[in-house]
Design a protein that fits this description.
210 residues, mainly alpha
Length: 210
């Protein structure tokens, strides 16, 4: 169930975007559950990739660009060229290769795997937890013929830069403090926090305008 933010007295309309963000923070950009164990009591436990901010801008699940089905297909074929894997291993490998910037969901990976099986580009072995997928001869030929196409999937979903990573970590710390204000602060403290957040937001817009 989606977490709901219930503003109390003193809630300022200009803080609605923050409220919407707080309402969305139960799930990350691809639907994975966020860890709430970072510094100051919330977020950041799994690193920048666990925050609902992507390198392509925006905030919350709706703000981040999502990889297309073609990108997921290319990533799977690219990874299987290095050896067989199961669905979970592929999801983990994508996240590791992009340092958390791209985390495909099971709902996008497993249907793509089945499609590739139907196209005879990959084959399934084993059952249950022992299920693995590997390239067929046709799949290996396809990978060899489409190297540039497969690489474009990774180019379109790059790992975050050092500055982007630092920004996300800073945002994670901020949201941890915001959660404390949401649950524990007095009305006076919340009003003071709203004023400070609004001031900071305006200052950030000025930086973007420079």
């Amino acid at each position: 169930m989606k977490n709901r933010f219930h503003p109390g007295p003193g809630f300022h309309p200009d803080s609605r975007r923050l409220a919407e963000f707080l309402a969305s923070t139960q799930h990350g950009p691809q639907g994975e559950h966020l860890q709430h164990h970072g510094p100051f009591g919330g977020f950041g436990h799994g690193g920048p990739g666990d925050l609902p901010f992507g390198p392509r801008g925006g905030y919350g699940p709706r703000g981040r660009g999502r990889a297309g089905r073609g990108d997921i297909r290319s990533a799977i074929l690219s990874l299987l060229a290095s050896g067989a894997s199961n669905g979970y291993g592929l999801i983990k490998a994508v996240a590791e290769k992009t340092e958390g910037a791209w985390r495909p969901s099971p709902g996008s990976v497993y249907p793509t795997l089945q499609q590739l099986v139907d196209e005879d580009l990959i084959a399934q072995t084993g059952e249950g937890r022992r299920t693995e997928f590997g390239l067929t001869d046709a799949g290996r030929a396809y990978v060899a013929e489409h190297e540039d196409e497969l690489q474009r999937a990774w180019d379109a979903n790059p790992a975050p830069t050092e500055s982007a990573r630092a920004l996300l970590e800073s945002i994670g710390k901020l949201m941890g403090v915001a959660q404390q204000f949401r649950h524990s602060a007095s009305e006076e403290q919340r009003a003071a926090a709203i004023a400070k957040i609004d001031e900071t937001r305006k200052a950030l817009y000025l930086i973007l305008a420079e």
